[in-house]
Amino acid sequence: MDSKEQPEKRIGEQPSLQMEKVLDKVREEPTHLNYWNVYKRIQQLDLTSLNVPDEKRVKVALLSSFTVDPLGMYLDVKCRLVQLDPEIYVAPFNQYQQEILDENSGLYAFKPDVIVLAVQADVLVNENFYSDFVKLSDVGQYQTEILDRIQAILSTLSARTDALILVNNFMVPPFTPLGILDNKAECGFRSFFYELNQKLADLYKESSQVYVVNLEAAAGKHGKSRCLDPKLYYRGSLLFSESFLPVIADEYMGYIKALKNLTRKCIVLDLDNVMWGGIIGEDGIEGIQLGNDSPGNAYKDFQRTLLSYYNRGVLLAVNSKNNPEDAMKAIREHPHMLLREKHFAAMKINWQNKVQNMIELAKEINIGLDSMVFMDDNPREREQMKQSLPQVLVVEMPASPFLYRQTLESMNDFNLLALTEEDKKRGEMYHARKQRKELRESIGSLEDFLKSLEMKIVIKQADDLGLPRIVRMVNKTNQFNLTSRRYTDSEIRKMKELGNEFEVYGLQVSDRLGDEGIVGVAIVRKEPEVWILDSFLLSCRVIGRKVETAFLAAIVADAKKEGVSMVVGEYIPTQKNSPVKNFYSSHGFEKLSREGDLYRWKLDLSKQSVKMPEWMDVKHE
Amino acid sequence: MSSSTDKKLKTILAKVLLIDEAKISDELSRKTVKEWDSMAHLMLVSEIESVFEVTMDDDDIMEIQTVADIKKTLQKLGITA
User: Fold this and answer.
1) Are A174 and A247 found together in one domain?
2) pLDDT at residue A9 in the model
3) A44: chain B residues, CB-CB within 8 Å
4) Which residues of B touch A69 (CB under 8 A)?
5) Domain containing A299 — which CATH number?
6) Is the pLDDT of residue B81 over 70?
7) Residue A128: its pLDDT value, please?
8) Which of B11, B43, B53, B59 to mutate to test the interface with A (most CBs of A within 10 A)?
9) For residue A228, what pLDDT band results from cuts at 50, 70 and 90?
10) How many angstroms away from the CA of A128 is the closest CA of chain B?
């Protein structure tokens, strides 16, 4: 064939392959020296030919009262390890205030997506604060002073940028001049910082832009005496020791992953030697280790953490090589099982290849493989999974079950920037879905089935309560999404404020088996005489129940009410949204125009409308 | 300087300054190696100190210009053959 094309393509691939090779070094041995080396080598690679999609790019600015270059290095490498393409801006040493106050600073020119603000408490109060603390009469005044200064900085910052702002709280000093009397004093030295941290967190509890990073907790976890290396601190103003840098970087990565939609939704678990000790097929229900004695208590504790994640909205599933009868007996009847059938969104217990099981689980639960985590004690199964399905996050399980819980608890892959009501109910929703599926199989016609569900839908304009969920859907929905346009939280808030120009709709669905919460979003751009459907998307879990028709019908009815003559539906095909290809044509829309990838369909309201499915109970607010 | 000391030092220098171990000589200098900036210098010192379990004098650290200088400073701290 054409011999010219191939080499060109290869050149294009080379930098990413080189990058992976360089990164292997920190994958294999994540030492500080290797992070340094890998970071420097990546800087030398020519990455200009890398074709990085926008959703993988992230710009992080670091503002600090101390030297943070090494933190930038860790964030850069850690971003690349999760296939992000980072750009890091480190503000000049201790110039965070100037950078924030000066509109023409490097910070604003950089246009960051994430801003990390790391300021020590000492620099916010006067020099003698530490030494004179015990003599101070009104320490509360100092807390106010510190908080006022942070608030002033942050309000300027948030007025000038839409970036996600991560502000560190303060490390409670391990030392107190009051010694054993710290808790007896009216305000002890340590109490001063505990209170300060609480007040700081309270200030930004409601903010969807500013997040207070719990440096104190991260330092506690790592061990405060190991967080600072005096040599590096005094010689180079480096506040974080080599061993603490990856820990605090992971803390920030939790936010960055959430922002860049790298959140994992489902933990897929092996059974033998993961959920319990031993092999159910050989040891039997009496023989497996699960209970209140060692090592059974470690497995039970691991299940407890899984259950706490389930209650927060992380899905659980099973992928195990076993006789289904043996395994189900243990899951249903073992007195110490904390996780039962109802906690699993799907289960594959059979003798087929686990990779195949994984693909089927993703399909059954209807989430992407890139939302899944795999936990298996067998290194061979893990290796096979990694090689066959690189999108799946395969956890390096420790050899000892005593460390299972810790391994799970130290992951930063389940974070969301906001927790919605839908999240907390997700596990139950999936259980209802399983029941719905069974019902569908038992009832002949689709219409009879839909009628039997007694569906209720509510269509309303986005309010603050539903907004986090709406933002997430806009950024996450791939399949039933007409244009796949992504908008940030602040962009959608702005649209809501511009009520004359935009309409942001949310769709809620429930039936007799359960409440699905908000499962649809539509954004309308209002022009004189014309409503344009800028975005229209639905969660896959309600597809096939005519919900999309009801949603469209309600919006068209609204347009009519406002006296608009035409509704225009926009459609941009992607690799994933083929299910919506005929959406507009099947609802009576006619072809209007095409500009590159953007197709426009029109509905002339003087002649046509969209009929509301009759069996649905529709509430329009 | 013992061969194992020499080997350890070379590994650090190679990784911090992105130089092939074979190309590391006593004459290697801050003036000629572009990567050997002040952050790299701090990194070098900190790695050497932790690997050899010593603390260098701040004045000595400032004066280090070449690999030979590093070895001299280490010798002062009793790291020899």
Assistant:
1) yes
2) 40
3) 18
4) 39
5) 3.40.50.1000
6) no
7) 85
8) B43
9) very high
10) 27
Cβ within 8 Å, pair B39-A34 = no
Look at residue B44 and tell me if it is in a domain: yes
DSSP A531-556: EEEEEEEE-GGGTTTTHHHHHHHHHH
Question: Which pLDDT score, from 0 to 100, does residue A369 have?
Answer: 96
- Do A390 and A430 form a contact (C-beta atoms < 8 A)? no
- pLDDT, one tens digit per residue, over A557-592 is 999 998 999 999 999 999 889 889 999 999 999 999
Kindly state whether residues A169 and A238 are assigned to the same domain: yes
- Top-ranked range on mean pLDDT: pick from A275-284, A416-425, A492-501, A573-582: A275-284
Give the side-chain half-sphere CA count within 13 A for A157.
27
Counting other chains too, the contacts that B34-38 makes at CB distance below 8 Å and 24 or more residues apart are: B35/A40
How far apart (Å, rounded) are the C-alpha atoms in residues A98 and B70?
A: 39
What pLDDT was estimated at residue B1?
57
A415 assigned to some structural domain: no
In terms of Cα–Cα distance, which of A114, A157, A370, A155 is closest to A249? A114
**Structure confidence at residue A6 (pLDDT):** 40
Each residue's pLDDT tens digit, B23-59: 999 999 999 999 999 889 999 999 999 999 999 999 9
Q: Helix A32-44 crosses helix A5-28 at what angle (to 10 degrees)?
A: 160
In chain B, the number of structural domains is 1
**Cα dihedral A297, A299, A303, A306 sign:** positive
pLDDT of residue A448: 81
CATH of the domain at B52: 1.10.1200.10
Interface contact flag, B16 A37, Cβ < 8 Å: yes
Q: Which residues of B touch A (CB under 8 A)?
A: 12, 15-16, 18, 35, 39, 42-43, 46-47, 49, 55, 58, 61
A248 plus A280 within the same structural domain? no
Residue of A nearest to B55 (CA): A231
Residues A355 and A207 in one domain: no
Q: From the list A41, A69, A229, which residue is nearest B39 (CB)?
A: A69
Q: State how far residue B7 is from chain A, nearest Cα, in angstroms.
A: 16
Specify the pTM.
0.79
Nearest to A82 by CA among A256, A237, A220: A256
* A342 and A250 share one domain: no
Best of A25, A34, A37, A239 to disrupt the B interface by mutation (most B CBs within 10 Å)? A37
**Domain harbouring A538, CATH code:** 3.40.630.30
Please give the average per-residue pLDDT across A514-528, as a whole number. Answer: 90
Closest residue of B to A44, CA-based? B18
pLDDT at A382: 97
Using alpha carbons, select from A274, A269, A419 the residue that is nearest to residue A345.
A269
Are A611 and A553 in contact, with CB atoms under 8 Å apart? yes
Residues 6+ apart with CB under 8 A from A439: A449, A452, A453, A513
Question: Of A33, A40, A242, which is closest to B35 when you measure between CB atoms?
Answer: A40
Per-residue confidence at A434, pLDDT binned at 50, 70, 90? confident
CB–CB contact A44 B18 (8 Å): yes
Domain encompassing residue A390: 266-409
Write out pLDDT tens, residues A166-210.
999 999 999 999 999 999 988 899 999 999 999 999 999 999 999
| Contact (CB<8Å) A37/B15 | yes
From CA A395, how far away is CA A378, in angstroms rounded?
11
The mean pLDDT of A402-407, rounded to a whole number, is 98
Residue A376 has pLDDT above 60, yes or no: yes
Among partner residues B15, B42, B58, which is closest to A33 by beta-carbon distance?
B15
